[in-house]
Amino acid sequence: MKKFIKIAAIVLVAAVFVGTFVFLYQKSQPEEVSYQILRATAKDLKQTTVATGKIEPRDEVEIKPQISGIISEVYKEAGQTVKKGEVIAKVKVIPELGTLNSAESRVRLAEMNGKQAETNLQRMEQLYKSKLVSDEEYEQTLLAAKQAREELQAAKDNLEIVKEGITQSSASFSSTLIRSTIDGLILDVPVKVGNSVIMSNTFNDGTTIATVADMGDLIFRGNVDETEVGRIREGIPVKITLGALQNMKFDATLEYISPKSTENNGANQFEIKAAIDVPDSITVRSGYSANAEMVLQHVENALSIPESAVEFSGDTTFVYVLTDSVPMQKFERRRIVTGISDGIDTEVKEGLKENEPVRGLKNEG
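The structure assignment produced for this chain is given below.
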C-alpha cells in the first residue's frame, strides 16, 4: 500500500511538471496576428474646413424715436411684415416744465405785440386814407403787423410742439409717429405702451422701438482660424448646415474675409461672411446657429489609402505593404510621400501603386 502511494505521488509530480512545461512553452510562442488588408485606389479627394457661426439678415435696422416721451400706442408686433414709412408706434411727448413755461410766455408776448401792431395798422390806415402819411410809412406799419402775425403763429406752433411734439400743419411729418425706415420683417418690438423712450443723442444711443430686417437677403457670419484663412478666397462656394435644419444644406458664396484678426480663446481668427441662397419654401430665422464648409484643396483621381494605414514618424510617412500571406502575413515597411487628406483618406503621391495591398487595423479575436 505504501509502495502504491509512493508511485502515485511520483506520477502526480511528473504530470504537474510536464503540464507546467507545456504551458510555458505555449506562452513563449509568438501569437499569430492578423491585419485587415487595404488597397490603394484612385478617387477624388477634398480637403475642407468648417467655420462655425450664425445666420443673420444683411440689413437689420434698429428703429429709434426722434423725440423723447412715453409710448402711447404700439401698432405692430414681432413677426409681422412692414413697409418703409409704415407706422410702428406712437410716442406721447411729456414736456419739460421750463421749456413749457418759456413757450407759453412767448405766446403771451406775441399776442400782446400782435394786438399793438393791429391797432397801429388801423390808425395808419385812417391816416393813409386821409393822405396824412406817406406810402412808405403805411407800408412799414403794414409790414410790422404781418411780422407780428407770423411771430404769433410761430409761438403757437412752438407751444404745440412742446406739448404734443407735432403741429396741425405738419401732422404728416410727425416725429411722434415712429415709422419703419425699410421694408422687411419685424424681428423684435422691445417696448410696450407706457414705456419711457429717449431720442438718440451724443451721450445716448436712444431707445430701440423695433428691429426690422430684410429676411430675403441672409448671410452667414462666422470665423476661420489664421492657419486656414490663407487658403480661402472670396467667391468660393460654401455649403451651409443649420443646427435647426440638420437634414438640409444650403448653397452660399463667400463674399467677405476680414483683413484684421480677432482673438478668441487665445487663437487668432478672421471673420467671414457668405451670402446664402435660401428657397422661398423654407423659413430660416435670424440667429440660427450654422456651420459653413469650404473646400481648401481638391484633387481629382488621386491615388489614396485610408489614413488609418499611414504611420507618421516626424515629417516622414510610412505604410506596411503586404509581401506574403502564407502561412502568416508578412509586411514590408515602405516610405511614401503623402498629399492632402479629407480626414478619412490620404493622397499618396509617391511610394505606392494602384491596388497595392497595405496593412490596416488589427483584426479582433
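Interim note for the steering committee: The first strand starts at residue 35 and ends at 39. The helical segments are 2-28, 97-129, 135-164, 226-229.
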